[in-house]
Amino acid sequence: MECSWKAVLLLVCASLGVQYTAIRTLRDSLAGPSNWKTLCDDSWMSMEPTQKHILLFATTRSGSSFTGQLLNQHPEIFYMFEPLYHVQQAFTNSSGRIRRSLDRRALLGAYRDLLLNLYKCDLHFMESYIRPEPQDHVTNSFFRRSSSHALCSPPVCLEGGNGAALAPPEESWCTKKCGILNLTLASKSCLTRGHVAIKTVRIPEVKDLRTLVEDPRLDLKIIHLVRDPRAILASRMTAFSDQFRAWKIWNATGRQPRYVDLSQITSTCKDMVASAEAGLQRPAWLQGRYLLVRYEDLAFNPKHMANKLYQFIGLEMEDRVQTWITRNTNSNLSAPFEWNYKYSTTRDSRMTAESWRLHLGYDIVRTVQNLCNDTLALLGYRRVHSTIQLRNLSYSLVEPIT
Ligand SMILES: *[C@@H]1O[C@H](CO)[C@@H](O)[C@H](O)[C@H]1NC(C)=O
Ligand SMILES: *[C@@H]1O[C@H](CO)[C@@H](O)[C@H](O)[C@H]1NC(C)=O
Ligand SMILES: *[C@@H]1O[C@H](CO)[C@@H](O)[C@H](O)[C@H]1NC(C)=O
Ligand SMILES: *[C@@H]1O[C@H](CO)[C@@H](O)[C@H](O)[C@H]1NC(C)=O
Ligand SMILES: *[C@@H]1O[C@H](CO)[C@@H](O)[C@H](O)[C@H]1NC(C)=O
Ligand SMILES: *[C@@H]1O[C@H](CO)[C@@H](O)[C@H](O)[C@H]1NC(C)=O
């Protein structure tokens, strides 16, 4: 009892944006004898984090599934794919919109709260958000469980075996093979790994993560993945065709419909540039904790870039990572491949990272170039000035890294 109170008190004292629910969950989890040791040994009491934490910070359709897989393959990394999805769902009404009563600040607070608890390997914290509500700490509704090797292999799933690492990217295999997910087991498995990595496309800017970076209970490093906004747009048009109907009409006719919504790509660009600027200015709080990665560099030269990524997080690159790269990026072809996870069942349907240049009308490209001019300039993406230049793949739009 004494120990549990100390731990709770410590948390309160440290109180860096911890919310009441966090403490309540912690107290609940202290009820289980198995967690006493973890929570009450010296390392916890001195708050020195024993694990390292990685955030793959990206935007929708910027190659983050692919990049996440580079982390997911490593046996020392406990990787989670978009756990914040559940928070967003919890605050979304039936028409898929964030509830008006909830402002951006509150949603970000809930996101950070979940991230902190997941980094501390408390997967029970997800239960506040998963629908339907898990009973007895097990669930069938963990978003994209198959994308997390750790959740589909022993000890969480005895059937998973090591094959899980190289299994085809097909969503249902893990639930079929492993059955229901036991969140207690998952939390325990998380504690045995040296690194906890989370991918998210739901946090707008790097500065929104400052409290987590400065939290003494975490040792957080941020991999900021960016991609050419013209490519992001083309990819979103393909993946979310309903939402992008007006854009598709524009693309097909070459004429901009009056009702086309330019705000989404504009804010994507604004967020990208704000975060990259914040990171590149090297503020003290991000010292050694921020890495900017262009998806194009990764797609063109996956082994080299994966090495850089692993250097940054302080781990050796494992064979399993190498093998995955060989199997999933066709390093034999001169053109890089886009790893189209969600919307393809076979590897053959992957598109090249540059294929957008052949499938996007010049009129749209020109508009995005104007909306995102600063972003292109800062991140080293060249503008094109004609359809011929756009379609000429020998003319690279990616400036060398400086
Ligand atoms: C959902 O929320 C949006 C924005 O707050 C609102 O316009 C819409 O009417 C809501 N829809 C339903 C079905 O509640
Ligand atoms: C989940 O795993 C824990 C720890 O191994 C175990 O005690 C518990 O009984 C499991 N829950 C269910 C519903 O199987
Ligand atoms: C690449 O080429 C080598 C030699 O031609 C071949 O052995 C290997 O299987 C190829 N890899 C892929 C992924 O096609
Ligand atoms: C744009 O239109 C062309 C045909 O004009 C089509 O081939 C291409 O797939 C379209 N691109 C997108 C992203 O919808
Ligand atoms: C876009 O940015 C570049 C480099 O900063 C600048 O030279 C150019 O004039 C800008 N163009 C437009 C249309 O804003
Ligand atoms: C395509 O780009 C390359 C490299 O900039 C250039 O040498 C070539 O002339 C271009 N081809 C056409 C048809 O414009």
Strand content: 5-15%
Tell me the helix content: 40-55%
- The overall strand count is 7
Helix and strand run: HHHHEHEHHEHEHEHEHHHEHHHHHHH
Are any ligands bound, and if so which?
2-acetamido-2-deoxy-beta-D-glucopyranose
The number of helices is: 20
- Largest sheet data: 5 strands, parallel
Q: Which class best fits the helix and strand makeup?
A: alpha/beta
**Mean pLDDT figure:** 83
Rg for CA atoms:
22 Å
Overall geometry comes to globular
Domain Sulfotransferase: 52-378
Keywords: Signal, Transferase
InterPro entries: Gal/GlcNAc/GalNAc_ST, P-loop_NTPase, Sulfotransferase_dom
Family: Belongs to the sulfotransferase 1 family.
How does this model look, in words?
By secondary structure, this protein is of the alpha/beta class. The protein is 44% helix and 8% strand. The chain contains 20 helices and 7 strands. A 5-stranded parallel β-sheet has the order 2-5-1-6-7, with helices on both faces. Helix 1 (2-14) packs antiparallel against helix 2 and helix 13 packs parallel to helix 19. The chain starts with a helix and ends in an 11-residue tail after the last helix. One 2-acetamido-2-deoxy-beta-D-glucopyranose binds at residues 234, 237-238, 248, 251-252, 359-361.
